Amino acid sequence: MTQVLSVALDAISSSLVLALVALGLAVVFGLVRVINMGHGAMLALGAYITWTLVQHGLPFVVCVIASALLVGVFGLVFEIVLIRHFYDKQFETLLITWAFYLVATQLIKVFWGTDLHSVANPIRGTISIGGAVIGRYVAVVSLVSILLFAAAAWVMYRTNVGIRVRAMIQNREMAMMLGVRASAMYRAIFTLGAMLAGLAGGLISPMFSVEPDMGTLWLVRSFFVVTVGGLGSLVGGTLAGSALMGGATTLVSLVAQQVFAQTVVFALAVIALRFRPAGILGKKAA
User: Fold this and answer.
1) pTM, two decimal places
2) Distances (CA, A) of 32 to 87, 132, 138, 254
């Protein structure tokens, strides 16, 4: 029983961490239909900024918040300079954001080098639940993920901002006629997506090695989470996709190496999309 509970806790925590990482991509991809291939670089940038500030002796929480804000500023500038001109052209935004990823990754290598870095665990120790053990910091990150999704659900379904965003998704022309400023709304959403990527990068930096190409695998994972979960469902779809990807990875890892487990899970995701292209909770296009 203890072993089953331990596996369940690992699967839940892995899914919530993956959901946290994917949330920034889900916000931009799901709400403004921009495939932000630069999401991985923004996450890596958040991790590096956090590592740098921690090296200067700042409190970890301050470092993570500062990372989110700084990456948000980079996202805002990127949106103003380039992205805002291509919202109606998905292929162009795909190429532009991929170019951003390549350039940003190389700049990270120039400024920080290619060595692996690590951030000390800010909350050491473990928690015992029914005999199963989970790290305190992993539990805190999982809780942060839950709170962020609860906040996203509240904003989307309980505030005027959420009503305007959903109106833009359903019928942009009609929403604009009713007074919604599309340019301002899209800019805010893209900036928020960048901030969430920076926040996730900072939060996972004590859990994984900080290195220039760390965003690549997380980008692939996030992309599958968003597409498998369903583009039309920001909160439920992202959580469902994360549960499938994170849970399946944990289970397959019990009988196979991590790399093989990831390959199997990606294959399962492709099969799932074959039979349900709109995703688990996505809606078919009319």
Assistant:
1) 0.91
2) 8, 41, 31, 38
